[in-house]
Amino acid sequence: MDRILNKKQGGGARAKPTMMDVAARAGVSQATVSLVLNGTPGVRLSDATRERVKHAADELGYRLVRRGKPGMPADQTLIAFIADEVATDPWMALAFDGAREKALEYGLTICMAVTRGDPETEAMVLNQMGRQLLGVIYGTILTRRMEPLQELFEHRTVLLNCYDAKRRLPSVLPGELVGGRVATERLIQAGRQRIGLINGQEGLDASRDRLKGYRQALSSNDIPFDPELAKWGNWEPSSGYEMTRVLMSLANPPDAIFCANDMMAVGCFDALRELGLQVPRDVSVIGFDDREIAQFTRPPLTTMVLPHYQMGEIAAELLIDAAGGLQVGPTQIKVECPLVERGSVE
Fold first, then answer.
1. What is the average pLDDT across 336-346?
2. What is the DSSP track for 169-213?
3. Do 92 and 233 belong together in one domain?
4. How far is CA 236 from CA 170, 208, 239, 241, 329, in A?
5. What are phi and psi of 140, to 5 degrees?
6. CA-CA distances (angstroms) from residue 275 to 236, 283, 326?
7. CA distance 284 to 228
């Protein structure tokens, strides 16, 4: 069963205060916030520290939901977060942060292991966890289908940014298709009718779904799909630059460009500037991912959030629910990619 989960988010920021926010306000670690708000006995913390944490939580309106679930094994307090790699992209780090904050709310510990997809390393990591292991979050840097390691079936496991084709394990994925449709519809709402697409690498799940969303939006608005306007890139600024030059050299060039990630949008901006065109007056541009750089382009880039932080939270929640006796089942949750309005679309 697929489930679409909407996570409302404006300007790239989370709508409600988090444990991370409380820790920053109080000048302590997230672990300290968890210990104070959970009332963990036997912990040596000064009264001043406890008061500072409580005061920060009150100021921000943060409320710890609960600690533990009925039926949760008392001796299983560890979640393993296994990532196939942590590259220069921030996605796995964001997902880990989301999972860690959710784990801390329940008084649980989470640790990350980067295995580069090596089955022997992954099996060794799981064997070392011992009886305290509550469950596993297995994440991949690229959204993709994968064949789960046999050892993963011996533990509570949630797949993050990847999925088992046989649906034997629950998975949490970004809503790429809907995100691609929303991005394209935003350009149509701005009055643009000839919309180019600079996509990522061909053959990847993210590229496939963003293309599907683009085509769905065109079809829903009675705009015919023109294959000349859809170009393949490689996620890097260089391909955004090169493909923008190709698109703008057409006899009938686009009046808007959907770049399937923000880095290609940076290259797109450079190419348009060289051609003497202004964003958004001459060409509207929208990106995807909401990287930090999107705030600092000129003009700031309108884009779609890639919701890995929320995906990490949800994956941890699924594990905790399962440990508490809730039958999670092999569901697939797709998390909404919210639109962040800035200045590159009009």
1. 95
2. S-EEEE-HHHHHHHHHHHHHHTT--SEEEEE--TT-HHHHHHHHH
3. no
4. 32, 17, 6, 9, 38
5. -125, 145
6. 20, 11, 58
7. 18
- Cα-flanking dihedrals φ and ψ of residue 57, to 5°? -65, -40
Domain that holds residue 149: 2-16+71-172+308-338
pLDDT band at 11 (very low <50, low <70, confident <90, very high): very low
Residue 56's domain is classified under what CATH number?
A: 1.10.260.40
Query: Which residue type occupies 22?
Result: V
Residues 83 and 219 in one domain: no
Q: Is the dihedral of CA 209, 215, 218, 221 positive or negative?
A: negative
Contacts of 20-26 spanning 24+ positions with Cβ under 8 A: 20/97, 20/101, 21/60, 21/62, 22/53, 22/56, 22/57, 22/60, 22/62, 25/56, 25/59, 25/60, 26/52, 26/53, 26/55, 26/56
Q: Is the dihedral of CA 54, 18, 23, 65 positive or negative?
A: positive
CA distance 134 to 319: 8
- Structural domain includes residue 282: yes
Residues 129 and 101 in one domain: yes
Q: Are strands 171-174 and 332-335 parallel, antiparallel or unpaired?
A: parallel
- Residue holding tokens 């057409």? 250
Both 132 and 144 in one domain: the answer is yes
- Dump pLDDT digits (tens) for 47-73: 888 888 899 889 988 876 555 555 667
Mean pLDDT value of segment 331-346: 93
* CATH number, position 112: 3.40.50.2300
Is residue 135 one of the residues assigned to a domain? yes
Question: Would you state the pLDDT for residue 240?
Answer: 98
The whole-number average pLDDT for the span 222-227 is 97
Token representation of residue 255: 């009046």
Considering the domain architecture, whether residues 199 and 287 belong to the same structural domain is answered as yes
